[in-house]
Amino acid sequence: MAAEAHAIDALGQFALSPALGAIGASVNFTQSNLMMLISAVLILGMLYLGAKPRAVVPGRLQALAEIAYSSIHGMCVDQIGHEGKRFFPFIFTLFFFVLLGNLLGLLPFSFTYTSHIAVTFALAVLVIVLVTIVALSIHGLHFFSYFFPAGAPKLLAPLIIPVEVISYLSRPVSLSIRLFANMVAGHVMFAVFSSFIVMMSAAGVLGTIGAVGPLALNVALMGFELLVAFLQAYVFSILTCIYLHDAVHLH
Amino acid sequence: MSDDKGSRPTSFEDRLDQARRRQGLDASNSDPAQAGKGAAGGNAMAVGLRVGVELVSALVVAVAIGWWLDRTFHTLPVFLIVFVLLGGAAGIANVWRLLGPGRAAPPKR
Fold first, then answer.
1. Which of A110, A204, B33, B48 has the highest CB neighbour number within 10 Å of its CB?
2. Boundaries of every domain in chain A
3. Alpha carbon distances (Å) from B49 to A36, A95, A174, A182, B79
4. What's the confidence (pLDDT) of residue B9?
5. Would you state the pLDDT for residue B109?
6. Domain range annotation of chain B
7. What number is the ipTM of this complex?
8. Residue A170 to residue B94, Cβ atoms within 8 A
9. How many CB atoms are closer than 10 A to CB A84?
């Protein structure tokens, strides 16, 4: 935290820098990519080690893996219906990739890859392309009736169709901005309050006593950010489920 | 198989449900859409943020389309003006879909 010259550097934490030394620098392998790899390894390790014992009464890790599996499975079936089982691997991967990105970013010296709009927008575009392909492959050209609700007056078609198309295209934007903005806002607040601590404690004994305030605020903020990390991963995957439901059932 | 228990419910699931209800642990048992809505909509700031994101994203998409059409046909303000209006309407439609009445009854939205 560069709060030395009374400047709050809240956005410097989002800068990318090469990881893994000279090899990483030569192929532009950043710490963001490194965190993605770590989260992928953690998810696979959690599932592999959790599924390994195959105990009737699960241990802690197996219970974690089973809860993770069954909760996402339940979400798919509840939201999409019976066909949702086909999309279970996709939703599971999406949920845990976002969740681990949010959670790992809360650790010191780590990096939140979900705080980059490039990452979240790529995920959202992936979702919307998949949804459109699913809808087209199930319903064919009938899919385009989605943009004109049945029963609406024909006269309003030139107004309704552009509005519905824009509304459809705004889904990936709102999906990605929601996750990205939540992550950035949380981490900026962390940085601002912790630079308050440094700046106040530089102002003598009274300032050091007063710096307990922002410290306590940061502790409370950490709890709030844990909630946001889970909530945003949940919102991202449940909105994907809702869009897939629309694609499969079309209204 | 266990009907010698008398008046107590026979199934283990029933007994578990009853015990959970006694302890007040049943609150987390609602369907996921409502749970998400409850956690997100519990504070007004989260609802406000969601509505704001919906409005802004529709407008961003509309402005991008309008600007791109104008750049293609060299008619700079025309499509931009039209699509800003359409984008505002699409944003309102998004918010209506999110919060409007009638959608609350099925658990899908």
1. B33
2. 12-249
3. 27, 21, 11, 9, 29
4. 57
5. 38
6. 11-42, 43-109
7. 0.72
8. yes
9. 20
